[in-house]
Write a structure and sequence with these properties.
There is one protein chain. The protein is mainly alpha-helical. The chain folds into two domains: 124 residues, Serine Threonine Protein Phosphatase 5, Tetratricopeptide repeat (Alpha Horseshoe); 101 residues, Tetratricopeptide repeat domain (Serine Threonine Protein Phosphatase 5, Tetratricopeptide repeat). Helices cover 75% and strands 0% of the residues.
């Protein structure tokens, strides 16, 4: 990297990562090389993958934040990161990785968002609500990638979290997403069951808009808790 041969630096970082998947510096150097090559989304995925192996690595966390702030996502991400700083959550690997993952999803980098969001789940959190937010985002990312099996699996986990939390709005959303997913797979019985649950919950919440649009949804909706 010092002699600006970033392609070779990237190759060596990948080899180092393969030789020792638990070595944080291999992920860090991979992320830096990708960043210099202008592959910002892939760089963030590399930093996140490293943090999944070693959540205590301050080098990886700082590197990820710096890469995010130098990426095209800076304008949308910076206000959120400033809020995290005020809440003293900017040093939480799970929170930072999750926020970056959802920003990647919003920006349309679906493959990278999957890597980053699943890294967040590996890092882990004791907050069921925040974990549910990641499940919801992953269901949307996999849906966009055309992987309905993975998408449906995360929708179900999102639903389970909403039920555990007693979050009827979350349940309503999750049932709607599952209904759309099952409909797209030709499983009309499950689709109808989930849309019925959505309608019942929507009417309980006095949400007329959700009730009237339930059978017409075309894909999962991301629900963020950030």
């Amino acid at each position: 990297m010092k002699i600006q041969q970033y392609d070779k630096a990237l190759d060596d970082a990948i080899k180092a990562r393969l030789l020792n998947p638990k070595w944080p510096k291999a992920y860090f150097r991979q992320g830096v090389a990708l960043q210099y090559l202008g592959r910002h989304a892939d760089a963030l995925a590399a930093f996140a993958s490293g943090l999944a192996q070693d959540p205590k690595s301050l080098q990886l966390l700082v590197g990820m934040v710096e890469a995010a702030m130098k990426s095209p996502m800076r304008d949308s991400l910076e206000p959120t990161y400033q809020q995290l700083q005020k809440m003293k959550l900017d040093k939480s690997p799970f929170v930072v990785v999750s926020v970056v993952g959802q920003e990647l999803l919003t920006a349309g980098h679906h493959g990278a968002s999957v890597v980053v969001l699943e890294a967040a789940l590996k890092i882990g959190t004791c907050s069921l609500k925040l974990r549910g937010s990641v499940f919801s985002a992953l269901s949307s990312a996999y849906w966009s990638l055309g992987n309905t099996e993975k998408s449906t699996g995360y929708m179900q986990q999102d639903l389970d979290v909403a039920k555990t939390l007693g979050d009827q709005t979350g349940e309503c959303r999750a049932h709607g997403n599952l209904g759309s997913a099952f409909f797209s797979k030709g499983n009309y019985r499950e689709a109808l069951t989930n849309h019925r649950h959505q309608l019942v919950l929507a009417m309980k919440l006095k949400d007329r808009e959700a009730a009237s649009s339930a059978p017409e949804q075309s894909g999962p909706r991301v629900h963020s808790h950030w």
